[in-house]
Amino acid sequence: MPIVSSRTGAASLPAFTERPSPLLPSTPVGRQLQWLCEASDRLPVPDAERHAHTSLTSLSLPAGLRVESFRAQPRQAERQAYAVLRDAQGDRHHVVLETDPAGRIRALRRTPIPRTWAELGDLVRGLAPRASFLATEIDRDGRIRPVYGVAPTTRRPIGSAMALYVLGALAHAVGQGRLRWDEPLAVRDAWKTDLTSSVGSVPDGTMLSLRRYADDAIFSGDASAIDHLLGRLGRGAVEAQQVRFGHAQVGANLPFLTARETTQLKVHPRMGEEYIAADGPRERLGYLRDVVARLPRPTEFPDEPRLTDSVEWFASPTDVSRAFAGLVRQAATQPAVGAVLGQQGTASLGLDAGRWPVGWSKNGVEPGVVTENFLAGTQSGRTFVVSLMVTDPDPVRPLDLDATRAALLAGAAGAFTLLTS
C-alpha cells in the first residue's frame, strides 16, 4: 500500500556539501561514457567499434543518449562511475560503468529509472520475494514524514548497514565527552575478521583514530573497523543507541552481534542453529562468550545465503529512516558525523551534486541480502531519505547481487526525483 503524506517543512542540515563533478572528466570512465552517448546516435554499433571500446560480448543502447548527471566513484574515480542518462524518448536510465586497466569498458549496467511511485513499487517487488522500501522527508523538527512505501515497517536483514547504529553510538559517546574522534585505538587481532580489508590488513598494535575506524566502517563496511568500534564502545552502547534512534524492534538485535561473531555463526551453521535455539538474549550472550569467542578468526566466507532470517542485524526502512534523522541531529553539533557518512554520499545514484549538495549513504550487501540507504539534501534545505531492502534466503537460486544493487540504485535515483517533483 502506498503511503501518502502532505509535504512539510524540511530539516535543516549542516553544510556537508559534495562538490559537483565536471561533465565529463577526461578519465577512462568519462571518455567511455562520452563514446556511449555518441554511439547511441548511430546505432547499431559495429562489432569492430564495440571491441575497440569494450570487452563486452554485446551492447544494447537506446537511441539519443545524453548525460543528465555524472558522478565518479570515490577512491576509484578513473575506473568506476555512475550516471543518469536521458534517451531520445525522454526516458531516464541509471548507468554503472567500470573500465579495465586498458581503459575499455569491462562492466556496464543500464537500468531504466522508474517514472512513477507505482513503477518503483513494481521494481522493488520484482527483485525478490521479500522486499521493502520507504521514501520519506525529514521535517524541521527532525521527524520523518513518509511519502511512499512498500512494507516500510517490515523487519529485514541489513548487513553492514548496522554500522549506522555503531556510528550513532560513537557520536553519542563523543557528545557526552567520554570519547574523542581523534582518540587513538590499537588494532587488535581479536577484533579482526577479514585480513584483506583496510583495517584487517594493518599490523596489530598500530594506533588508528576512532575517526579512521568510522570512515572505513561506513565507506566499505569494513568488518574489522566495525568490530574495533564495537569493542571500544561495548555492545550495550550500540543496543542503547537503537532505542535512542527509535528502532521499533530492538529485541531482534539482542545481543548486538559483532561482525566476527556473525561470520563465525554463518561459517559454522551448526553453531548458528545452537545460538538461535538459546533461550533469550542472556543465554545467547553466554553462548557467544563461551563457544564462539574460542573459535579462531574465520578464513572462509559463505558465498550462499546462510541464516539470513536469524543470525543477522535487523531493521525496517522506517527504522533506518529514523536512524538517519537521529544522525542529522548529531551532525548539527559534530561535523565528523556528516563527513563520515558523506564519503560515498549519493555518488552511486549519479545524482547531480549541484542540485543535491548533501548526500549520505550506507548499504549492506552479502549473499541473499541487499540494502541501499540514502539521505540527500536539496539546495533549498529540504532533506529526504530513501531506504530499499531486498532479501532472498534461497541458496539454490541466490540473488544476483550486482544486478540487484543496480536495480535498487536506479530505484533510489527515481525516488529522489519523485520526492521533489
TrEMBL record:
Coiled coil: none
Domain Beta-lactamase class A catalytic span(s) in chain numbering: 148-334
Domain of life, per lineage: Bacteria
GO biological process terms, semicolon-separated: beta-lactam antibiotic catabolic process; response to antibiotic
Organism: Cryptosporangium aurantiacum
Name recorded for this polypeptide: Beta-lactamase enzyme family protein
Gene Ontology molecular function terms on file: beta-lactamase activity
